[in-house]
Design brief:
Number of helices: 8
CATH superfamily: AhpD-like
Radius of gyration: 15 Å
Strand content: under 5%
CATH topology: AhpD-like
Number of strands: 0
Largest sheet: none
Shape: globular
Helix content: 55-70%
Distance between the termini: 13 Å
Length: 144
């Protein structure tokens, strides 16, 4: 597979806008461990190799364990994630896939751990990584 287009070069204003969104997400106060889980899991669901590579590398640098990274695809079947993380992972999958909307029970589980502002911030974080995934996949970006 060859890289198709550089959004950074072809549309620098679009790239700058996405970086603005990324900067916002990083400064929301979402726990960095949760943010890494959101980015990795959405990237796995979407099949974005570039983003999986980038975000697992970043997660490791921030202290995430190999065991949890390797088990993330099967998070429901492992004991490695907290109830809060499980709520975020289920929400990430529901927002990423949006087959039949986000189920009420998945949203209700989020309200056990987060207030409306934090849920809104998490939705934006999930939307941002999904946008990055779509750009990476459409442009055929490959991990280094």
């Amino acid at each position: 597979m060859q890289k198709r287009v550089s959004i950074y070069d072809a549309e620098p204003n679009a790239y700058k806008a996405m970086m603005g969104l990324e900067t916002y997400v990083r400064h929301t106060g979402i726990d960095h461990k949760l943010l890494h889980l959101i980015k990795i899991r959405a990237s796995q669901v979407n099949g974005c190799a570039y983003c999986i590579n980038m975000h697992t590398t970043d997660a490791r640098k921030d202290g995430e364990t190999e065991q949890r990274i390797y088990a993330l695809n099967a998070w429901r079947e492992t004991p490695y994630f907290t109830d809060e993380e499980r709520a975020v992972l289920a929400f990430t999958e529901a927002v990423t896939l949006i087959v039949n909307h986000v189920p009420d029970d998945v949203y209700t589980e989020m309200t056990k751990f987060f207030d409306e502002q934090k849920i809104a911030q998490i939705i934006v974080a999930i939307a941002a990584i999904n946008a990055w995934n779509r750009m990476g996949i459409a442009a055929n970006l490959m991990p280094a």
